[in-house]
Amino acid sequence: MEQKNITQYSINYETKQHPSVKGLQIIEGKNNFPISWLNKQGYCEYQLYLEHVKNIKSPTTPEMTHGSEIHKQLEDIFKQESAQVSFEEVIESSKSEASMSRECFVISPKYGIRGHIDEIWMKPEEIVIIDDKPGRTPYKSTMNQVRAYCLAFKDMSGDDRKIKGALRERGTENLFWIEPFTEDVEKEIKFTIDRIHGLFNGSKPFMPTKNPKKCHSCRFKHDCEHAQ
Questions:
Q1: Are strands 126-133 and 162-169 parallel, antiparallel or unpaired?
Q2: Fewer CB in a 10 Å sphere around the end CB: N or C, the chain?
Q3: pTM of the predicted model, to two decimals?
Q4: CATH number, domain containing residue 127
């Protein structure tokens, strides 16, 4: 597959920072959150509250630092070896010639989500959206993150090709989970996204995890009144 570095987008939205929630933006009059928050929500909703509403800062873990370093290395190598194109150009050209991109930015004001896809394969017959994760376990939270990338890409591109979401073991070629983005999957992820919007507009409560193992390893355990 030809490597394409997407550097231009035809649509630019005016964004405003939410007055009280760190990281939340207002785009076209609607709250818009980073897709990575789905991973946090699946781990513990109250973690979202502590970090983004209470603005509690936590130390960076060695695992987070290591992951960022690997991610940066891969991104730098890709930029050196790829041609610069616009989002619209690569969508059109990939209908006849397969291409691969990294750090593909996607945004959907309609669903209130945005994020960067680690890697995306655009083939004439299908789109494969890949998120790199440590380990080989497909947690519900990480699956939901990929599903939201699929939803945002579908909405942003208007492309009617079949879409698959995949999780890959970081630093390897091992795709340890892959799933077609079906109508049922789309309906399920929309429900979860709506719940997160409900957390931040006050219509739903932030629910803490009931898993003591998650509490034990949580970066916010010293600041959380629900820690077990």
A1: parallel
A2: N
A3: 0.92
A4: 3.90.320
CA dist., res. 179 & res. 185, Å (int):
9
- Given a cut of 80, whether residue 81 has pLDDT beyond it is no
How long, in residues, is the chain? Answer: 228
Structure tokens at 52: 């983004």
Q: Which two tokens stand for residue 80?
A: 């050196």
The DSSP call for residue 221 is: G
State the amino acid at position 195 in one-letter form. R
Cβ–Cβ under 8 Å, residues 104 and 91: no
Contacts of 73 (CB under 8 A, 6+ apart): none
- Composition of the chain by helix, strand, coil, percent to 5: 40, 30, 35
Q: Identity (one letter) of the amino acid at 50?
A: L
The tens digit of pLDDT for each residue in 171-188 reads 899 999 999 999 999 999
Closest CA to 45 of 185, 195, 194: 195
Q: Is 228 inside a domain boundary?
A: no
Among 225, 228, 169, 212, residue whose Cα is nearest residue 46: 225
Q: Domain range for residue 207?
A: 2-223
Determine the Cα–Cα distance for residues 25 and 158; give it in Å rounded to an integer. Answer: 23
Residue range 32-51: mean pLDDT, rounded? 96
113-122 and 99-108 strand pairing: antiparallel
Q: 203 in a domain, yes or no?
A: yes
